[in-house]
Design a protein that fits this description.
Helices cover 16% and strands 36% of the residues. By secondary structure, the protein is α+β, with helices and mostly antiparallel strands. The protein has one domain: Aminopeptidase, CATH 3.40.630. A four-stranded mixed beta sheet has the order 1-2-4-3.
């Protein structure tokens, strides 16, 4: 008698990272959709936004993201790195 074969599922993808979250006048105000990321196999979502942009940071918080405490310097190509802060949430 043969044993039943178990289906092997691939491990979930660990995280999706967006390099920048910005807000500008006229933006549609829609938040990233972690549900769609979950459907694609991601378990966490990470956003990076500039430290000195309170509107963008508030947007991330309203979308359910929490500041992780991580920071990094990011050079946008002008040789003057700016500090970004990371936000994260479960998908």
């Amino acid at each position: 008698m043969r044993g039943r074969q178990r289906a092997t599922l691939p491990p979930p993808r660990p995280a999706c990272t967006a390099t920048e979250a910005t807000c500008r006048p006229g933006a549609d105000g829609r938040a990233p959709r972690p549900r769609h990321l979950r459907d694609d196999g991601f378990t966490r979502a990470h956003l990076w936004t500039l430290r000195g942009t309170p509107l963008s940071r508030r947007f991330c918080t309203k979308a359910g993201f929490a500041e992780s405490g991580a920071t990094r310097a990011h050079d946008f190509g002008d040789g003057k790195p700016l500090t970004q802060v990371e936000y994260e949430r479960d998908c």
